[in-house]
C-alpha cells in the first residue's frame, strides 16, 4: 500500500488524494473483453483489462486505438490469474481516451498551463482568435488555426474541456467519499476549493443532495458563498431560497472568518476556502477584528470579482458576531461543543442526533464552546437548537425572517459598546424563547403520533390522521394549541415522522389531503385505492442502471435554468452543434434520472442531474434530431430543495430567453 495515496485504518482503506495514470496505447486485443497494452511516459508497458458490464460513460470502445492516450483516475494494481500484473478497469466513468499521442497531449497540456493566451500553433504573443467549437484554443490567425487543426486539434477539439478540467483539478484534495471522475470533468468546471464532508463539492445547489451534517457544517443551512441566492431577481440560485413573489422559502446564513476590516465592509474566508468581500454593510464593522467570525443571515451574492472573490451583501442587523480567537476552527469546534451541551432528555434533540449519520466531535485542544463569551454561548446555543428542531428548512415569510432569532435585538446585544457619554438606550424586548413553553407537551405528542402510525397497516393520508389520533388516544390532535398554524408544520417538527407530498385525486382542499404520513422507517406501500398504484408498482420493478428513454419521458426538476452550461457554453450553441453533427449525443455527459412521485403529481422520471442537458435534448427531439437518449437511472429521490418546478416538470424557463419547451 502506497502511503502517499492510501491509508488503512480500522480495517478499511481510505484514499488520501487523487491521482491519474496516463499512457499511450500500444496494442488493442478484443478477446472476450478489451485488453490494452499501454506505455507510460517512463517507457514502462502495463496491461489494462476492461471489465465493464454496463454501457460505458466516458470510456468509449471506438476510441481504443493504437496511438491514442488512455487516462485512468485513481487506478490500482491487480494480480490476474495468469500470474501477470496490470489494471482491472471496472468503471466506465474513471477512464478516458484522448485522441492524440501522449507526446502531443503533453504539448497541449503545457500550452494550457504555461501560456493559455498564446497561439496554440506558433506560440506567438497574445492571440485573439478563439476556436468557436471548444472555446479554449487560441490562435494568432486563420493559417495557424488551420495548421493546428490538421496537426492535432481536429481530434482533440471536443475533448479540450476535459483536458483543461483535468489539469485544473486539485489532486491533493481529499476525495471525502466523492471521487472526481471523467464524467464530472466533462461537465463541471467550477468546484469548491474545499467540499462539504458529506461529499458536496459543486458551486450550484442544483447538484446537492440533502446534507446529513449538523451544526455549521451543514452546507444547506450554511451554504458556500458561490451557492448564495443572487441579489438579481433572475439569479441562478434564487429559486432554491425564494418563491416567485420573492418571499423566502427557508432560512440560511453565510459563515466567514474575518481577516481584514475596512470602513464599510470586510474581507473574509468561508469554511469552503472561498474569498469573500462583504460591502455596503450599514450595520458597520465596529468591534470586528481579524480572527472573529461573522454569521450573516439572508446574505445574497452581488457579483464575482476578477480574482474570484465573491461580493456579498448583508442587510442591516442580520448578522451575528462571534469573538473567536482561533477563527473558523474555533467556531466549528465550539459548535460541536454546543451540540454536546443540548439536553439529552429532550426527545427532539435525542432523535435528531441519533438520525444524523455525520457529526463533528468537539476537540479539547482547540478553542471551544466554554471559551466563548457568555453572550456568544447563548447565541450559539440558539442557533444549534433552531437547526435541530428543523426551523431552518421552513419559513413563513417576512415576519418569520424578522423573528427567526430576534436578530434585531440579538445582533445589537452581542456587540461591545463603544466608549461614550452615558446615554439611555431603549432596547427592544427579547423575542419569545426558542423552545415553546409546551415543549414537554410537544414531545409527548411526537410519541403519540408515532404510536398511531405504528398501528397503521399502510401509510396514512394526512387528512385521516386527526381522526385516527382521536380514536387511538381518546383526545383530539390540537396543533394550534402547540403554536403551529397547520398540521403539516407540526408533523415536520416531529422527528421519526415522514411526510410525503402526493395529493389524492378528488381530495384537494381538505386539510392534510396533500400528503401521506408514515414512520420514517416504514416501507408501507401506497393505498391500493390510489389511482397511481399501478405506476408505483412499475416503479418498484425498475432497476437502476443505464437505459434508453425519450427526452419527453423525462421531467424537469427546476422551474428555470441558466442559458449556459457550467463551462460557459451556450445551450443554443450546443443545440446547433448537435443539429449540424459537429457533436454527437454520446459526446454529452449522461443524464441521471430517478423515478418517484412529486408534489402534486404521480410517479415519473425526474432529472436527478442534467436539467440543461435535457432542455437541449427536448429541443432536438422536437426538431426530429433524436428519438431516445441513454440515461442512468439511480436509486435516489430528488431533494425538496431542488424540486422547484411548478408544472410537474413538463417545461422549464430558460433565463434570458423568451422560449420554453413544453411537452
From TrEMBL:
This is MYND-type domain-containing protein. Gene3D superfamilies: 6.10.140.2220, LOTUS domain-like (3.30.420.610). Transmembrane segments: none annotated. The keyword Calcium does not apply. The keyword DNA damage does not apply. PANTHER family: C2H2-TYPE DOMAIN-CONTAINING PROTEIN, UNNAMED PRODUCT. Residues 119-157 form the MYND-type domain. Residues 441-521 form the HTH OST-type domain. PROSITE patterns: HTH_OST, ZF_MYND_2. It comes from Polarella glacialis (Dinoflagellate). One of its GO terms (molecular function) is zinc ion binding. Residues 502-534 are annotated as: Disordered.
Amino acid at each position: 500500500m502506497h502511503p502517499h495515496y492510501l491509508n488503512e485504518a480500522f480495517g478499511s482503506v481510505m484514499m488520501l488524494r487523487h491521482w491519474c495514470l496516463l499512457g499511450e496505447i500500444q496494442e488493442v486485443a478484443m478477446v472476450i473483453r478489451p485488453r490494452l497494452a499501454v506505455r507510460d511516459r517512463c517507457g514502462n508497458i502495463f496491461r489494462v483489462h476492461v471489465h465493464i458490464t454496463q454501457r460505458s460513460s466516458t470510456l468509449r470502445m471506438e476510441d481504443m486505438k493504437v496511438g491514442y492516450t488512455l487516462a485512468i483516475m485513481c487506478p490500482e494494481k491487480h494480480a490476474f490469474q495468469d500470474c501477470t500484473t496490470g489494471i482491472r478497469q471496472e468503471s466506465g466513468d474513471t477512464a478516458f481516451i484522448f485522441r492524440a499521442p501522449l507526446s502531443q497531449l503533453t504539448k497541449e497540456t503545457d500550452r494550457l498551463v504555461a501560456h493559455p493566451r498564446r497561439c496554440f500553433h506558433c506560440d506567438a504573443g497574445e492571440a485573439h482568435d478563439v476556436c468557436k467549437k471548444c472555446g479554449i484554443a487560441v490562435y494568432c490567425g486563420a493559417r495557424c488555426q488551420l495548421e493546428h487543426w490538421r496537426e492535432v486539434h481536429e481530434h482533440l477539439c471536443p475533448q479540450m474541456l476535459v483536458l483543461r478540467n483535468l489539469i485544473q483539478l486539485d489532486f491533493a484534495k481529499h476525495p471525502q467519499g466523492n471521487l472526481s471522475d471523467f464524467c464530472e470533468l466533462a461537465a463541471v468546471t467550477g468546484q469548491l476549493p474545499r467540499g462539504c464532508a458529506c461529499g458536496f463539492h459543486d458551486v450550484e445547489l442544483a447538484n446537492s443532495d440533502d446534507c446529513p451534517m449538523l451544526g455549521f457544517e451543514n452546507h444547506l443551512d450554511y451554504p458556500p458563498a458561490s451557492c448564495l441566492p443572487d441579489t438579481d431577481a433572475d439569479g441562478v440560485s434564487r429559486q432554491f431560497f425564494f418563491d416567485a413573489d420573492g418571499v423566502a422559502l427557508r432560512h440560511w446564513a453565510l459563515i466567514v472568518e474575518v481577516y481584514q476590516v475596512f470602513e464599510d465592509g470586510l474581507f473574509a474566508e468561508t469554511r469552503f476556502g472561498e474569498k469573500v468581500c462583504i460591502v455596503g454593510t450599514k450595520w458597520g464593522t465596529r468591534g470586528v477584528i481579524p480572527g472573529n467570525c461573522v454569521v450573516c443571515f439572508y446574505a445574497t451574492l452581488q457579483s464575482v470579482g476578477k480574482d474570484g472573490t465573491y461580493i456579498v451583501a448583508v442587510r442591516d442587523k442580520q448578522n451575528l458576531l462571534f469573538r473567536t480567537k482561533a477563527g473558523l476552527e474555533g467556531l466549528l469546534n465550539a459548535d460541536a461543543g454546543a451540540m454536546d451541551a443540548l439536553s439529552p432528555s429532550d426527545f427532539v434533540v435525542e432523535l435528531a442526533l441519533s438520525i444524523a449519520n455525520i457529526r463533528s466531535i468537539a476537540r479539547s485542544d482547540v478553542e471551544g464552546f466554554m471559551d466563548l463569551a457568555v453572550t456568544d454561548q447563548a447565541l450559539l446555543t440558539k442557533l444549534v437548537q433552531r437547526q435541530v428542531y428543523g426551523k431552518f428548512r421552513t419559513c413563513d415569510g417576512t415576519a418569520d425572517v424578522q423573528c427567526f432569532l430576534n436578530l434585531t435585538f440579538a445582533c445589537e446585544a452581542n456587540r461591545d459598546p463603544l466608549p461614550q457619554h452615558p446615554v439611555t438606550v431603549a432596547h427592544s424586548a427579547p423575542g419569545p424563547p426558542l423552545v415553546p413553553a409546551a415543549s414537554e407537551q410537544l414531545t409527548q405528542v411526537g410519541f403519540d403520533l408515532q404510536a398511531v402510525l405504528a398501528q397503521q397497516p399502510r401509510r396514512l393520508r394526512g387528512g385521516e390522521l386527526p381522526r385516527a389520533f382521536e380514536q387511538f388516544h381518546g383526545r383530539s390532535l390540537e396543533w394550534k394549541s402547540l403554536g403551529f398554524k397547520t398540521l403539516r408544520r407540526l408533523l415536520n417538527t416531529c422527528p421519526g415522522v415522514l411526510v410525503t407530498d402526493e395529493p389524492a385525486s378528488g381530495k384537494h382542499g381538505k386539510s392534510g389531503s396533500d400528503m401521506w404520513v408514515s414512520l420514517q422507517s416504514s416501507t408501507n406501500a401506497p393505498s391500493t385505492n390510489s389511482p397511481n398504484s399501478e405506476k408505483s408498482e412499475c416503479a418498484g420493478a425498475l432497476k437502476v442502471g443505464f437505459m434508453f428513454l425519450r427526452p419527453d419521458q423525462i421531467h424537469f426538476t427546476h422551474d428555470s435554468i441558466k442559458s449556459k452550461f457550467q463551462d460557459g457554453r451556450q445551450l443554443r450553441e450546443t443545440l446547433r452543434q448537435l443539429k449540424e453533427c459537429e457533436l454527437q449525443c454520446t459526446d454529452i455527459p449522461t443524464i441521471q434520472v430517478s423515478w418517484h412521485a412529486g408534489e402534486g403529481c404521480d410517479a415519473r422520471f425526474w432529472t436527478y442531474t442534467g436539467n440543461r442537458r435535457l432542455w437541449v435534448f427536448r429541443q432536438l427531439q422536437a426538431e426530429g434530431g433524436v428519438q431516445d437518449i441513454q440515461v442512468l437511472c439511480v436509486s435516489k429521490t430528488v431533494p425538496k430543495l431542488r424540486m422547484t418546478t411548478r408544472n410537474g416538470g413538463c417545461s422549464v424557463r430558460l433565463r434570458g430567453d423568451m422560449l420554453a419547451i413544453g411537452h
